[in-house]
Amino acid sequence: MQPTQQPFSPETVIKRDEIDRYLGSDGRDFIHDSELRAELAANSKPDAARVRDILAKSLAIQTLSGAEVAALLAVDDPDLLAEMAQTAWDVKHKVYDNRIVTFAPMYISSYCVNRCRYCGFSLDNHREKRRCLTMDEIKREAEAMIRLGHKRVMAVYGEHPMTGARFIADSLAAIYSAKVPGRAAGSANNVRRINVNAAPLSIDDLKIVREAGIGTFQVFQETYDHEVYAAMHPANTVKGDFGWRVTCFHRAFDAGIDDVGLGVLFGLQPDWKYEVAAMCAHARELERFVGIGPHTFSVPRMHAASGSDVANAANPFSDDDFFKAVMVLRLAVPYTGLIVTARETKELRDRCLKIGITQMDAGTRIDIGGYSAGNVGQKIDEQQFMLGDNRSLERMIVDLAKQGVITSFCTAGYRCGRTGGCIMDALKTGREGTFCKINAVLTFREWLDDFASPESVEACKPLLEKELAAIAEQYPVFFPQIKARYDRICAGERDLYF
Ligand code: SAM
Ligand code: SF4
Q: Which ligand is nearest to the CA of 263?
């Protein structure tokens, strides 16, 4: 039976002492709006020599300071912008090689106790047709996603008492339990990694989710501007508490989750440079706190949503702003992955490929149960917001291959314990790029054998052969071992990685 939407008291969720312990001695959180704005103003006219020094630091895979991020955000000279774009691309190659990791979201519940003014799931939106999947339905949804070729899932939930930590943990188990026979005799496909996008949780609840096998814990701050935050999230809601949200990754680290994803919902306010600067400040705060920065930055931009005046108004954050924000983020925290979702059009995502994004979703459905129902098209009152890129996974893989970009389904880092501080070091020194390249080729080959049409195989083969040849040249000593695993995959074995 589906529950009714009911008002909810923030006090039942928020543990005040699990905010206070992460505040400064002055009782403030670590996002200091006026200092960040002063830093942006003080660095608004950087000369070319300074910008080039900053780019050299990015290329050495070092996190930029607040002043350096502000300087890059101020660049508007076309030649310098071109140099920034080239460096962003070089940084991406150095750290992650030329691959895009792909995933797809699974929306599990649209029930929510919050009243975010930009979201179709808001408690105030009575037009939304709400649904929460049962464990059987979640498993069926996972099977449908596996049949499309997905191996990485982003599980997404509204905030509601019935979808708390235990429910999230059970839903991860349901997804991991799904298995679908592969094309090779005796083989089976499954989901190998689940990331979670959910509301902030307490430390005890985060431990429950960690034990269920979470990959990345993703929570978007939406806006780092305290005033705009208050205007978008009514004070008598859980999400209305800025401090509970902005300290959620501190709690995650204390609960043993060392893989976290930050994000801003661009367009909630016109000053996007402030949001980029503040998200980078958040990343530096995590480095200070535990020595581990974010695994990913997301750059969701607000899109039309059921019942929302805010989301349905013109977005002040243009495509050109979007491009520049992505470029500066790539340079500012060079080891952090960058996700551009199917909210955006194919054209804009293709543009961003050239400045170093690392993850894209594909074949995306954000209606609850949409994969197993085989739904096509979008219905505004049955999803959180509207999407801009409706390509199938297969279409996107072929499009990327034609641009020389290999799609990776690699989940090895997480399963080999290369997370947190360990992965940070591997990324900074370029070691992870080696694994990325090899595992991209192995998982790409798997996908072609298990899911691609003969035409797609033909279209992707030249890239696969080029990548294999590049690995042979780059790692001559190691290559026989790599080739042996590759050949085993060609013969029907699955899930082999380095
Ligand atoms: N309910 C949880 C929360 O808010 O933290 C989980 C995430 S919510 C289902 C996923 C994300 O969607 C939000 O964090 C927000 O950034 C984004 N979102 C909400 N409304 C949106 C809109 N109109 N357009 C694009 N993204 C939106
Ligand atoms: Fe609920 Fe999240 Fe939507 Fe806010 S953004 S209304 S918390 S689902």
A: 1
Nearest CA to ligand 2 atom 6: 122
In a domain, residue 185? The reply is yes
What is the number of the ligand 1 atom nearest to the C-alpha of 158? 1
Task: Select from 456, 466, 354, 309 the least CA-distant residue to 397.
Answer: 456
- Per-residue pLDDT band for 398 (boundaries 50, 70, 90) equals very high
pTM greater than 0.90 (yes/no): yes
Residue 145 — left, alpha, or beta (φ > 0 → left; ψ -120 to 50 → alpha)? Answer: alpha
**For residues 55 and 355, what is the distance between their CA atoms, to the nearest angstrom?**
13
**CATH number of the CATH domain containing 278:** 3.20.20.70
Structural domain includes residue 419: no
Best probe residue, ligand 2, of 108, 119, 302 (max atoms within 8 Å of C-beta): 119
Whether ligand 1 lies within 6 angstroms of the CB of 198 is answered as: yes
Asked whether residue 363 falls in the same domain as residue 387, the answer is yes
pLDDT-based confidence at residue 1 (cuts at 50, 70, 90): very low
Domain boundary among 409, 444, 479: 409
- Residue listed under structure tokens 């005033």: 227
C-alpha span between 322 and 29 (Å, rounded): 27
Residue nearest to atom 19 of ligand 1 (CA): 119
Atom nearest to 304 CA in ligand 1: 23
What total number of domains does the chain contain?
A: 2
- Rounded to the nearest angstrom, the distance between the alpha carbon of 116 and the centre of ligand 1 is 9
The domain of 203 spans 10-24+99-409
201 and 79 in one domain? no
**Same structural domain for residues 69 and 188?**
no
- 61 and 113 belong to one structural domain: no
Closest by CA to 391, choosing from 358, 342, 353, is 342
Residue 155: CB within 6 Å of ligand 1?
A: no
> In sequence order, which residues have a C-beta less than 8 Å from that of residue 119 and are 6 or more positions away?
112, 125, 305, 308, 311, 384, 385
Read off the pLDDT band of 206 (50, 70, 90).
very high
| Contact present, 63 and 42 (Cβ < 8 Å) | no
